[in-house]
Design a protein that fits this description.
By secondary structure, the protein is an alpha+beta fold. The protein has 2 domains: 40 residues; 64 residues, Roll (SH3 type barrels). It has a 5-stranded antiparallel β-sheet, with no helix packed on it. A two-stranded parallel sheet has the order 1-7. Strand 4 and strand 5 form a beta hairpin. It is rod-shaped, with a radius of gyration of 26 Å. The N and C termini lie far apart (81 Å). The relative contact order is 0.15.
Length: 112
């Protein structure tokens, strides 16, 4: 004869296991979505480098990257099409084709 108490305990344990798996699956799905979003963001961006054509987001003025300033990732020199050379924060510019500019790695900034 079957012991229903044992069956109830077994069902409760399996239910708890399934609930734990569902929680883990949700976490995994969230991590995958974050990784996918980051990959899409990187695909729509470009790392700043010398010679890269850029444009000011506000004015539309275009030029090319000359150098990072003092190896800092947040500022760079741009030579505008009229020959004017100025220093700006990366956030004010985008690549000429509309991609977002990524800051230079500090190690790379010294050699840019």
């Amino acid at each position: 004869m079957m012991d229903f108490d044992d069956l109830d305990e077994e069902l409760e344990q399996k239910g708890a296991d399934l609930e734990a798996l569902a929680v883990q699956n949700r976490r995994d799905r969230e991590e995958e979505e974050k990784a996918r979003a980051e990959a899409e963001r990187l695909a729509k961006s470009v790392r700043m480098q010398a010679g890269l054509r850029v444009q000011n987001r506000m004015t539309g003025r275009t030029g090319e990257v000359v150098a990072a300033m003092d190896g800092t990732p947040a500022n760079f020199k741009v030579r505008f099409d009229n020959g004017d050379v100025r220093t700006f924060p990366v956030a004010k510019f985008e690549a000429e084709d509309g991609r977002t500019l990524l800051e230079v790695n500090p190690e790379d900034g010294r050699t840019l």
